[in-house]
Amino acid sequence: MSQKSYNQFWLEGLVPAVFTPFHEDGELNLSKIDEYCEFLLKNNIKAVFVNGTTGEGKSMTKEERKLVAEKWIFTASGRLKVVVNVSGLNVRESIELAKHAVHIRADAIACLPPLFFKPNSIESLVDHCKMVADAAPSLPFYYYHLPAMTGVELKMEDFLITAKKKIPNLIGLKFASKDLGDLIGCLFAGKFNILCGCDEQLMGNLVMGAHGAVGTLYNFMPQVFHRLLQHLSDGEMEKAREEQIRAQKVLRLMVKHGHSLGGNVAAVKPMMALVGLDLGPPRHPMRPMTVDELIDFHRDIDLVGFKNWDPANLL
C-alpha cells in the first residue's frame, strides 16, 4: 500500500470497541458475533475496534484473539471496517498478531506500548511501534495512547513528529488521554487521524479537532452519540451537551459498580442485554455481577432514564 493509499484511509464518527462474547464457562462464543454485527450495522456503525480493552484482549490467549479477529472480518464481509488491536506483553507477540491481521485482511491495526517493561522515551516508543507496524506494511497503523492503564505518559505531539519519519504506515492515534492540550498539539504534528478514546470527553475532543471516536458506550447507546454528532454539526451546542451528559450518567454508574467487579468492563457488558444482546460474562480477574448486584445495577439504570433515551435501534 502506497503512502497515498494510507492517507486515503480515514475513520470518522463512532467506532465501537466491541465486547468479546463468552459462554458462561468463559469459552469464546463466536457465533454471537453474527447477531452483534447486524445490530451495529442497523445502528449506522461503519467500523469496529477488535480485541481492545473493552474486548478483554489481554484476558485472551493469542490464538483466541486470532479467532475473534477472523470471525469479525468474516462476518463483516466488507460492510464494516475492522481495526485489530495487536498489542501484546512482548513485541514478538505483537508482530505475530500484526502479520496475522495482514493474512486475514484486516483494514488496519492498532497497538499499545509494552505493558511491563515500558518505553521511557519518545525514541523507545517509536522503535517499538515501528517493529510492529513494519510487520504489517500494507495496513494503516494506529498507536493506542492509554496512559491511565499503560503508565506511558509521553506527549503524543512529540511522538507523531518523530514517528512519522520512521513509520510510513502510521495513520493516527486512538487518543485515550484526558490531556486535551496534548490532543491539540497533535494537530500541529501533521495530518493524522485522531480518534477520541474517552467516551466522557467525546464532545470536547471533537471540538478540539478529533475526527471520530473509539469507545465502549457506542456499543449500547449509539443513537445517543449519533444525535450528539448531529447536534454538533448543526451548531446546537446545548442539545449536544445534553447527550454528552447522558453518557456521563452511565459512566458514573460504570465506575460505581465496576470497582467491586474488578474492572469497568464488567459493569457495562450487561448493558448489551438491555438492547437485546447478551454477550455473557467477563473473564477473570473481572467477575460477573451477582443476582443482587444486577438488581441494584438495573435500578440505577432505570433511575437515570436509560431506556427512555432511545439508545439504540434493536434487531
Strand content: 5-15%
User: Low-confidence spans: pLDDT under 50, at least 5 residues?
Assistant: none
Give the total of beta strands. 8
Report the span from N to C terminus. 37 Å
Order the strands across the largest sheet as they lie in space: 1-8-7-6-5-4-3-2
N-to-C SSE series? HEHEHEHEHEHHEHEHEHHHHH
Principal-axes geometry comes out as globular
Helix content, binned percent: 40-55%
The overall pLDDT average reads 96
Largest sheet: 8 strands, parallel
Q: Cα-atom Rg, whole angstroms?
A: 19 Å
Task: Determine the number of helices (DSSP H or I, runs of at least 4 residues).
Answer: 14
The secondary structure category is alpha/beta
Describe the protein:
The protein is about 45% helix and about 10% strand. Helix 3 (about 60-75) links the parallel strand 2 (about 45-50) and strand 3 (about 80-85). About 45% of the residues are buried. It has 14 helices and 8 strands. The chain is an alpha/beta fold. An 8-stranded parallel beta sheet has the order 1-8-7-6-5-4-3-2, covered by helices on one side.
Key features?
14 helices; about 45% helix; alpha/beta; eight-stranded parallel beta sheet; single chain; about 325 residues
